[in-house]
Design brief:
The complex is a heterotrimer of chains A (301), B (432) and C (175). Chain A has 301 residues and is an alpha/beta fold. Chain A is built from ten helices and eleven strands. In chain A, helix 1 packs antiparallel against helix 8 and helix 3 packs antiparallel against helix 10. Chain B is mostly helical and 432 residues long. Chain B has one domain. In chain B, 78% of the residues lie in helices and 0% in strands. Chain C has 175 residues and is mostly helical. In chain C, helix 2 packs parallel to helix 5 and helix 4 packs antiparallel against helix 5. The chains are: A alpha/beta (301), B mainly alpha (432), C mainly alpha (175). Chains in contact: A-B, A-C, B-C. Chains A and B meet through strand 2, helix 2 and helix 5 of A and helix 3, helix 10, helix 11, helix 15 and helix 18 of B. The complex binds sodium ion (2 copies). One sodium ion binds next to helix 17 of chain B.
Chain lengths: 301, 432, 175
């Protein structure tokens, strides 16, 4: 069988490289019986359409950013809740709590999660060092979803909507003065061209997820199904390791290119964690019981 | 079925549909449908719906109708006439005279807009009627417009450089800076070509009757103030960060309307006409973009461009040979697919080959844009040709013929940046 | 009937024009907010939530709703160099054939656009930005526009069959 697999990110992204390896593993394990062609960088479908394309079996399998679905159910957005899970261990724990619920939610749409891999933890990009939360006050802060908008409002920053490709321009013209994103995104977009400081505040670890259409998967013979699950498990483990390596490497790349990388002060972190707690309350107001059960599961652990 | 057979069948269908006069947008969609249905197992109808929806609500595209509306407003006010009467006394001695308005106008507008279709539509809307009225030769009016409008892609901001930068993780800021000198080089090549044609055939260019003194020139230049305010306002808003490049299009419409009212020659009726005409033109362009997007998805499913690129990779060519073959490959694909699709469909295969032989990916991005510029003016699928046909009603094949010298100039541009890569790299290197 | 149909095409075209004007006004308002934030600081809210999403949705609506009007006004481009070599009789029947083919394609696209809405409704799909917009609402213009485009193509084909004596009668396909 030949499967076409749309993914949103380019070939240089470690997520895409991990998926290419996943496809190679499967080809080998099934002796070419399952041959996945990876269509990277949104070349087959735009990011926003990938989930629905898998749902209606236009393609059997695809990748997307999990938290994009947070408008559909708050459970999808927990991994982008600021300062809830701020390390790989915590992110792992959160994913374990999240996975059963998300599996159930996706099953309602005929989708089955295969594996999920986090981006490196999100850091703070600014021009000049930020000592405390009041240092963010009044800054024009890039907000691309409701939760970041709320974050900006709490810390007294002005939320600004800037589409990803416009970021360099927006920084160099002063339209944006601060953003939270991963060291990968920063390094890949040559952040040193437009910001001077980076602080690994590890705000959250957003995850990409690879899903397969349940009916297509059920149509595979048992041996192939097992091969898919094995390759997926291997890809998940490999992906998390790649992510951790990526975090170190890309932070180093930032530093090498002259971005000042500084550890956040204890005061800043304490204040940010407070903001996180405050925002979690808003989240709980909007969350279903099912979604809240993830949170209790995660916090009791 | 083997790839060459598949390709021949699809080409046959495309040419048959286009020759029978099927609207281009529909013809592209039908070829895509045939490709998916015959040569892949994917569900063509669902994919069509996903593509129509997914590509129609894009933010980057929102600037297109606004820039077209701006052109329509300028056309219906005195501003575009004023611009020509202001420039005429200055260009009266230049070989080629007002044809340079097409070249320079497109270059300046390229600094505002990221797309070549918007550049062709906006500048062409004003310059084609004016130049035709003044008796300039049709071939050169259409050629300079079609050719120069491709600068919209190279001179920053540029949609295609953003697509390339995101797909290959190159710095978009550096790509933009790298596009500046090659853009100016092409402006010189285009203007030089016009001058050479004017010199070699003195009867070709109509004489402008005005023989103005310096003071009269200055007085005539006052006519340029409104247009200068417009361009300055739009560019200024981008570089002060008040507006993103897409936002700037809206500012362009507002400023054009205000200036048109102020010039006292604009009415509600004219505004309404401008709006409806812009609505039709942008619908026409968007429909073709959607047809092209569907075809691009179909090509993704059939794997034709990918296989062709992989096949090139098997030869193990040296850098120059690889570039020569890739140029042919892109020209060929560019005849049938729109430029952004070509980039998106083949970067996965081509980038590893390119970096393996030691070609600088930043340089390659600029190379790619110039090659894609060529695809904008090659038939049967060339967006600038479609836009200009929409403006003038002249058949695309005739426009393509007029644009052919500019295709060759772009090719010369590719050769120049290959021989002198510094044209591309010197500015970004200076960024440190 | 003729007047009703022409009115519908034109009406949809006006709505499309209004959408483009809407994009312009929305973005202009955002630019004003940017300007105000730069000059006066945080007096006014600094963003219109999801304004890029809304501009995109209006663009989609404008594109599809303008399709029938654009077809009827002869503003969609096509290659005429080959067909111009034929006589008016051949051109007319070729026009009928092409318009029927285009109507079939339009009907096919409308049908699947309809199934897209049906899916969006069934799963309650929403947009992913700050404001969660139910997708079926913003997808309605897609089906409306494509449906009317199909009608306009068929309408033009029938016109071409019935009134060959007046070459100007059908702007969509001049003979
Ligand atoms: Na440009
Ligand atoms: Na072309």
């Amino acid at each position: 069988q030949a499967w076409d697999m749309p993914t949103p990110y380019g070939d240089a992204t470690f997520h895409t490289q991990n998926i290419a390896q996943f496809a190679d593993d499967l080809r080998e394990a099934t002796d070419g019986a399952l041959d996945i062609t990876v269509h990277s960088a949104g070349s087959l479908f735009p990011h926003a359409e990938i989930k629905n394309a898998v749902r209606s079996r236009q393609v059997p399998i695809g990748e997307f950013l999990l938290s994009r679905l947070s408008n559909e159910d708050a459970a999808y957005g927990l991994d982008t809740q600021p300062f809830l899970a701020t390390s790989y261990e915590q992110a792992q724990k959160l994913w374990e709590a999240q996975k059963p619920v998300i599996t159930e939610l996706l099953a309602e749409e005929g989708l089955m999660p295969l594996f999920s891999v986090p981006w490196p933890a999100q850091g703070l990009y600014t021009n000049g060092e930020i000592a405390g939360v009041d240092g963010l006050g009044g800054l024009r802060f890039r907000a691309y979803n409701a939760s970041l908008e709320e974050f900006a409002q709490i810390v007294g920053a002005a939320p600004v909507q800037v589409e990803a490709p416009d970021i360099p321009q927006a920084f160099s013209t002063g339209q944006v003065e601060a953003m939270i994103t991963s060291p990968s995104t920063g390094a890949n977009s040559s952040a040193w061209d437009f910001v001077s400081h980076f602080s690994p505040i590890n705000a959250w670890l957003p995850k990409n997820i690879v899903v397969v259409n349940q009916r297509v998967f059920d149509g595979l013979d048992e041996a192939t199904q097992a091969a898919v699950m094995d390759a997926a498990a291997a890809a998940e483990q490999r992906g998390w390791e790649m992510s951790a390596t990526e975090a170190e490497e890309k932070t180093a790349v930032l530093a090498e290119n002259g971005v000042e990388v500084y550890a956040p002060s204890d005061a800043l972190m304490a204040e940010l964690l407070d903001v996180g707690t405050q925002m979690l309350e808003t989240w709980e107001d909007a969350a279903s019981d099912q979604a809240k059960s993830i949170l209790t599961g995660y916090q009791s652990n | 079925m083997s790839d060459p057979v598949t390709a021949l069948v699809l080409l046959g269908v495309l040419f048959a549909l286009l020759a029978s006069g099927v609207w281009i947008a529909v013809a592209l969609g039908l070829v895509a449908f045939v490709a998916i249905t015959l040569f892949s197992g994917a569900p063509a109808g669902l994919i069509l719906a996903t593509t129509l929806w997914g590509h129609s609500h894009s933010w980057a595209l929102a600037a297109l109708p606004l820039f077209i509306l701006m052109g329509e407003i300028l056309l219906r006010s005195r501003l575009s006439e004023d611009m020509f009467s202001g420039l005429a006394p200055w260009l009266v001695k230049a070989p080629g005279r007002l044809l340079h308005v097409n070249v320079l106008g497109c270059a300046i507008f390229a600094a505002v807009s990221g797309s070549s279709a918007a550049t062709a539509a906006t500048i062409g809307r004003m310059s084609v009627p004016e130049l035709t009225k003044r008796g300039y030769p049709e071939g050169l009016i259409l050629g300079t417009l079609a050719g120069s409008a491709t600068l919209g892609l190279l001179i920053p901001p540029s949609i295609i450089l953003i697509v390339y930068g995101v797909a290959t993780e190159q710095s978009i800021a550096r790509l933009f800076v790298a596009g500046i000198l090659p853009g100016l080089m092409l402006v010189l090549l285009f203007a030089g070509y016009v001058a050479v044609r004017a010199w070699s055939d003195p009867g070709l260019i109509p004489t402008e009757t005005l023989r103005a003194s310096f003071r009269e020139k200055i007085r005539a230049s006052r006519n340029l103030i409104p247009v200068a305010l417009l361009i300055g306002g739009v560019i200024g808003s981008i570089y002060t960060g008040i507006a993103s490049p897409t936002d700037a299009a809206a500012l362009g419409v507002v400023l054009a309307t205000v200036l048109a009212w102020a010039s006292g020659t604009f009415s509600w009726g004219a505004f309404f006409e401008a709006l409806m005409s812009a609505t039709r033109t942008s619908c026409m362009i968007a429909a073709i973009l959607l047809g092209a997007a569907y075809l691009s998805v179909a090509m993704g499913f059939t794997g034709l461009p990918r296989n062709l690129a992989e096949w090139i990779g098997t030869f193990g060519l040296s850098p120059y040979a690889l570039l020569a073959v890739l140029t042919l490959f892109f020209i060929l694909l560019g005849c049938f697919l729109d430029g952004i699709s070509v980039v998106v469909l083949t970067t996965s295969i081509i980038m590893p080959m390119v970096t393996a032989v030691g070609i600088d990916p930043l340089w390659f991005g600029i190379y790619l844009v110039i090659v894609v510029e060529m695809s904008q003016i090659t038939p049967p699928v060339g967006f600038n040709l479609f836009v200009i046909q929409g403006l003038t009603g002249i058949d695309i094949l005739r426009i393509a013929k007029a644009a052919f010298p500019f295709f060759l100039l772009l090719l010369l541009g590719v050769i120049l940046i290959t021989v002198f890569p510094q044209i591309v790299t010197v500015l970004p290197d200076a960024m440190g | 009937m003729r007047r009703i149909l022409d009115g519908v095409y034109r009406g949809a075209g006006f709505v499309a024009g209004a959408m483009i004007l809407g994009i312009c006004l929305l973005i202009s308002a955002q630019i004003l907010l940017n300007l105000s934030a730069r000059i006066f600081g945080p007096v006014l809210p600094s963003t219109i939530p999801s304004y890029a999403d809304f501009a995109g949705f209006m663009l989609a609506a404008a594109t599809f709703l303008a399709m029938p009007h654009t077809l009827r006004e002869g503003a969609h481009v096509r290659v005429t160099l080959v067909t111009d070599r034929f006589g008016p009789g051949v051109r007319r029947w070729l026009g009928v054939a092409v318009l029927v083919l285009v109507a079939v394609a339009g009907g096919y696209a409308s049908f699947y656009a309809g199934s897209l809405i049906e899916e969006s409704l069934r799963y309650g799909d929403t947009s992913t930005g700050i404001v969660a917009v139910p997708l079926w609402i913003v997808q309605v213009p897609l089906v409306l526009g494509l449906g009317l485009f199909t009608v306009a193509a068929l309408d033009s084909a029938i016109e071409l069959v019935r009134r060959p004596a007046e070459p100007r009668s059908c702007k969509a396909w001049k003979i």
